[in-house]
Design a protein that fits this description.
The complex is a heterodimer of chains A (about 500) and B (about 90). A seven-stranded mixed sheet of chain A has the order 9-8-5-4-3-1-10. In chain A, strands 13-12-11-14-15 form a five-stranded mixed sheet. Chain A has about 500 residues and is α/β, with parallel strands linked by helices. Chain A has 17 helices and 15 strands. The longest helix of chain A is centred in the C-terminal third of the chain and has 33 residues. Chain B has about 90 residues and is an alpha+beta fold. Chain B has one domain: 2-Layer Sandwich (Alpha-Beta Plaits). Helices cover about 20% and strands about 15% of the residues of chain B. Chain B contains two helices and four strands. Chain B is elongated. The model of chain B has no long low-confidence stretch (mean pLDDT about 95). The chains are: A alpha/beta (about 500), B alpha+beta (about 90). Chain B: This is Ferredoxin. Chain B: Pfam families: Fer4_7 (PF12838). Chain B: InterPro entries: 4Fe4S_Fe-S-bd, 4Fe4S_Fe_S_CS.
Chain lengths: ~500, ~90
């Protein structure tokens, strides 16, 4: 059985992308049972493929935290922002169950319910487990997930395994306490606040122990790491190696978000986040040993809907109170829709493999890789107007094929530009976010942005509207090659690039 | 002898389950957690450190019996207070 996850590349490029490890090779996934593979297929966070079709939601029932991270500010509640830890409304377990069932009935593509804060779910065991208990009983077709800093993980594994929780995410930013002390100023452990290296050492031990306990039970573990330039950037490839050896299935290296207005230590102290290039390089460096997640949107602790969109406003508590939900019939409807989506995904995947096989006979190009930005609202096709895109998907085209690299937000985490922006226009910000890309593919684009993109050295292209992304990217790449726009490079150079 | 939670509390709930005297309660009147001074023992006889103040993430939100912040500015986040003041002034100038 082929596992449909993670930046799957066409078969034609198999062997050609070993330097990037861009897919989920049989070898990398060999340690997974069929049961676990099945758990991944409709999970938008674990499967790059699935995230175009399936939705997830978080319920904010867990406000308390047992550690402090330098990228977090517990006072934060800006409604304009989409990033971890930010919420508008704290819920009781009872409200959370009601909200989950309302969302599942109204967004039938919703497959996964996660608890991810705003604090640490396992530092709020009563609230977290009460929510899981009720949901596994009342909404058995919803997958349950939890995301944790890992400090209280070992003591929670037994309870987690009782609630049919398929997936756990642990945020692991380091395995070295000296580095940890630069990220975590303190932890709360055995009734004491413990600062510095001593605290970081305990946290790291608990994270690693929890990871081992989970994988021993067959619970799928994803590791999140925040890339902090000058602090843990050089260290994360090592982290990746270790967590893979301990059975983690997927590694998600995320960029640090740090702005002074967030009031975090890193924001106030002027610590910069990584550039798009630095992030991609590190993800590539890690991927030699590990499946990398590249489609994470660093969503809010109360996010609702597809990754990259937030429909939270439709499901505030006052609106939910007014909804009448017949979950039994909703569940039947959900089943039909999920099956139809799975079928569509499978047929698209099969078509991709077939197409790749037919490309295999064509003479191979010998040209440098190119990054292209895609405006899409989902379904794997180019279907969005340039000006409407709040984010772009970034693909790399090379002689080896097309691979998904990342997404880039155009509003740079904040849409309230009147109050906290730096005077740049939306268009200027968008162009800056697309740095390094040579082409933008969208359904349509106006004259003004067209000119500005060209001046910035990015070629707009609206000729491939409604086409599948990979096909269009490859077609444009071949046009560029044919037009002599791509320098030829030797195969050796490409392998080390 | 009692600690006090003031209005800068962000209602994170971390302290409430830790209190050995069950002195911490959500005050709907104040809109945040508070400490019942008649119940608070400052954890004496139970713990070496006062539990609420040892997990609270908000500098200045918990005061001791003399009205002094148990976690003064800079003590939890590591941000020097003068640096914070500088950055806030800069942000407000925009």
């Amino acid at each position: 059985m082929e596992l449909p996850v993670l930046n799957e590349t066409p078969a034609a490029s198999a062997g050609g992308c070993s330097s990037h490890s861009c897919g989920s090779s049989d070898d990398q996934l060999g340690h997974l049972s069929d049961e676990i593979r099945a758990k991944v297929e409709n999970h938008p966070c674990y499967s790059e493929d699935a995230h175009h079709y399936f939705a997830r939601m978080h319920v904010a029932v867990a406000p308390a935290c047992n550690i402090q991270c330098h990228y977090c500010n517990r006072k934060y509640d800006c409604s304009n922002e989409s990033r971890p830890g930010v919420v508008s409304e704290l819920l009781t377990p009872e409200q959370a169950v009601k909200k989950t069932m309302a969302v599942a009935a109204n967004i039938p593509q919703m497959t996964v319910l996660g608890i991810a804060g705003p604090g640490d779910p396992l530092a709020n065991p009563e609230r977290t487990f009460e929510t899981f208990r009720r949901l596994s009983q009342d909404a058995p077709d919803i997958k349950l997930c939890v995301s944790t800093n890992g400090l209280a993980l070992p003591e929670s594994v037994e309870e987690l395994s009782k609630h049919n929780i398929d997936h756990v995410t642990i945020t692991i930013n380091c395995v070295d306490p000296e580095i940890g002390a630069q990220i975590y100023p303190w932890i709360f452990w055995e009734n004491k606040r413990i600062k510095g290296v001593k605290g970081a050492k305990i946290l790291i031990e608990q994270q690693q122990k929890g990871l081992e306990m989970l994988t021993a039970r067959g619970i799928l573990v994803k590791v999140n790491s925040v890339m902090i330039p000058g602090v843990n950037d050089k260290h994360l490839a090592e982290v990746s190696k270790i967590v893979k050896a301990k059975g983690a299935f997927l590694h998600n290296v995320m960029p640090l978000i740090a702005e002074a207005e967030h009031g975090t230590f890193y924001g106030v102290m002027g610590q910069r986040g990584p550039t798009q290039d630095e992030l991609m390089d590190l993800q590539d460096a890690c991927s030699g040993d590990m499946n990398m997640m590249r489609h994470c949107r660093q969503c809010r602790a109360d996010a609702v809907g597809l990754l990259g969109e937030d429909r939270g406003d439709e499901f505030t508590m006052d609106k939910i109170e007014a909804m009448e939900i017949d979950y039994q019939s909703a569940m039947e409807k959900r089943k039909v829709i999920h099956e139809a989506i799975a079928e569509e995904m499978h047929s698209k995947r099969a078509a991709k493999v077939e197409k790749a096989a037919s490309h295999a006979d064509e003479p191979k190009l010998n040209t440098r890789p190119v990054l292209m930005a895609i405006a899409t609202s989902g379904q794997g096709v180019i279907n969005q107007h340039f000006g409407h895109a709040k984010e772009f998907l970034i693909y790399e085209a090379s002689p080896d094929g097309v691979r998904f690299m990342s997404h880039r937000k155009t509003d740079l985490y904040c849409s309230g530009d009147d109050t906290c922006g730096d005077g740049e226009s939306v268009l200027q910000r968008t162009i800056r976010a697309l740095e390094g890309c040579e082409v933008v593919l969208c359904s349509k684009i106006g004259y003004e942005p067209w000119d500005m993109l060209e001046q910035a050295g990015i070629q707009p292209n609206g000729e491939h509207a409604m086409e599948p992304i990979e096909d269009a990217v490859m077609a444009v790449y071949k046009e560029m090659a044919a037009a002599g726009k791509l320098d030829e490079v030797s195969a050796d150079k490409r392998a080390t690039a | 002898m009692a600690l006090q939670i003031i209005e800068s509390c962000v209602n994170c709930y971390a302290c409430e389950p830790l209190c050995p005297s069950k002195a911490i309660f959500m005050s709907s009147k104040a809109g945040h957690f508070r400490i019942n001074p008649n119940k608070c023992t400052e954890c004496e006889g139970d713990y070496q450190d006062t539990q609420c103040a040892s997990i609270c993430p908000i500098e200045g939100a918990i005061l001791d019996a003399n009205g002094i912040a148990v976690n003064p500015p800079g003590s939890l986040t590591g941000i020097p207070p003068e640096r914070m003041a500088e950055v806030m002034a800069e942000l407000q100038a925009h």
